[in-house]
């Protein structure tokens, strides 16, 4: 897809590509130059994305991490100091930039598909597969709670109010489903098994 980003503000150079050499890379999915993971918090987008990139010999990029690099602030700080509107502008600019790269696996932030501009970028970029990782809200919430207890874990203020988090999950579902080329329920899948499922899916397409 050609990102129509003429109006997007100038940004720093993109994050250097990260790839892990392997003697046995899996053949790249025919017809695809980019695989993008979407889904709610706790779905495993970053973990699965990094593992898949390693298997393919591609590079991996977490979009929220890229936004933090561009802004020089952590995501919660961007929201608190600069506001959500600023964060969303940076998100769209970052997405437009990284979608211009090939042989890359991208993990989106959970709220990225809510923005029309982001959905259009994903829908209009050729050779791009979007994979929606899903599970019941209770499963995702429990995973997030475990992650939050890990030293150095990313702050997730929305987890403080379970009811609000569940409402946000429900509101985002339609956007995840709309942009997805493939949907995988990860309830009973390890990250490694999820990677295998993605590889099977696109080997058959």
Structure commentary:
It is found in: Cytoplasm. The protein is α/β, with parallel strands linked by helices and about 200 residues long. It has a domain at about 35-55 and about 105-205: P-loop containing nucleotide triphosphate hydrolases (Rossmann fold). It contains eight helices and five strands. The protein has helices at about 45-55, 65-70, 75-80, 85-100, 115-125, 135-150, 160-180, 190-205; strands spanning about 35-40, 60, 105, 130-135, 180-185. It has a five-stranded parallel β-sheet, with helices on both faces. α1 crosses α8, α2 (about 65-70) packs across α4 and α3 (about 75-80) crosses α4.
Can you lay out the helices and strands and say which pair or pack?
Elements: E1 34-38, H1 45-56, E2 59-62, H2 63-71, H3 75-82, H4 84-98, E3 104-107, H5 116-124, E4 128-134, H6 137-148, H7 162-179, E5 182-185, H8 191-203
Parallel strand pairs: 1-3, 1-4, 2-3, 4-5
Describe what is shown at a glance.
Residues 1-25 are annotated as: Disordered. The protein contains eight helices and five strands.
Stretches where pLDDT falls below 50 for ≥5 residues? 1-11, 15-23
Assign the CATH topology of the domain at 37-56 and 107-203: Rossmann fold
Largest sheet: 5 strands, parallel
Strand and helix order: EHEHHHEHEHHEH
Number of helices: 8
The CATH superfamily of the domain at 37-56 and 107-203 is identified as P-loop containing nucleotide triphosphate hydrolases
Output the keywords.
single chain; 205 residues; alpha/beta; Rossmann fold; five-stranded parallel β-sheet
């Amino acid at each position: 897809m050609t990102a129509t980003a003429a109006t997007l503000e100038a940004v720093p150079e993109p994050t250097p590509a990260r790839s892990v050499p392997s003697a046995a890379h899996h053949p790249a999915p025919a017809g695809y130059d980019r695989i993008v993971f979407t889904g709610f918090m706790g779905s495993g987008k970053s973990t699965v994305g990094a593992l898949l990139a390693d298997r393919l010999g591609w590079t991996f990029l977490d979009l929220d991490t890229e936004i933090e690099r561009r802004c020089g602030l952590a995501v919660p700080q961007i929201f608190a100091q600069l506001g959500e509107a600023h964060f969303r502008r940076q998100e769209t600019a970052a997405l437009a930039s990284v979608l211009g790269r090939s042989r890359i696996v991208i993990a989106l932030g959970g709220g990225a598909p809510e923005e029309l501009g982001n959905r259009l970028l994903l829908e209009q970029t050729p050779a791009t597969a979007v994979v929606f990782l899903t599970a019941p809200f209770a499963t995702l919430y429990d995973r997030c709670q475990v992650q939050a207890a890990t030293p150095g874990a990313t702050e997730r203020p929305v987890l403080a109010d379970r009811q609000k988090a569940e409402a946000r999950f429900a509101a985002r579902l339609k956007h995840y489903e709309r942009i997805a080329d493939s949907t995988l329920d990860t309830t009973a899948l390890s990250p490694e098994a999820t990677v295998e499922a993605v590889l099977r899916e696109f080997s058959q397409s």
